[in-house]
Amino acid sequence: xxxxxxxxxxxxxxxxxxxxxxxxxxxxxxxxxxxxxxxxxxxxxxxxxxxxxxxxxxxxxxxxxxxxxxxxxxxxxxxxxxxxxxxxxxxxxxxxxxxxxxxxxxxxxxxxxxxxxxxxxxxxxxxxxxxxxxxxxxxxxxxxxxxxxxxxxxxxxxxxxxxxxxxxxxxxxxxxxxxxxxxxxxxxxxxxxxxxxxxxxxxxxxxxxxxxxxxxxxxxxxxxxxxxxxxxxxxxxxx
Length: 239
Prior knowledge:
Elements: H1 7-38, H2 52-79, H3 82-114, H4 122-143, H5 147-160, H6 164-174, H7 197-238
Helix pairs in contact: 1-7, 2-3, 2-5, 2-7, 3-4, 3-7, 4-5, 4-6
């Protein structure tokens, strides 16, 4: 893993990997979508249960994406490694998009189930805070012209945001909330109905690999961008 911290090795290793990730991710998403329309209606929720196959994977992977951003920020700040900084930067936009999707689909699901689009519930509020950390990270990077200063400031914010991850995860256990407790990933095994489990797992892994494909593609693009900037800077010195 640490050998891949070298940009040249990283580019060589991920070159053939990225197309495979894209292909497997799209295949899983298509298969999971087909399964989600073939499962029976829930006896209480009816057809609205199908929102689960979008909402739950988006929430899980959105949380994981911020973990990738925060850990990458740590390595970028402590070890000053440009590839770690590129990884943190690349995780921000897809992570924010997934978290926004989780919030949106959660509201769609909450209206028929709870009778309201939004409540200041511990889980909902902590996920909103997670989304704001994503937005703050991207805004901070874009607001500072000096790229090194921007990466350091954003890395600090990215690491601070890690504090919110256990709050998101355990909010349903620590406080009384409208949001149901964990059902897919929990001690004692899943409580998801076996009729829905294959479709849900296919979508979770599909979303995860889809994020991975976007993330690696974005890191590779960032590495190329920085190489071009470096070449331009060297050319300007000799001009």
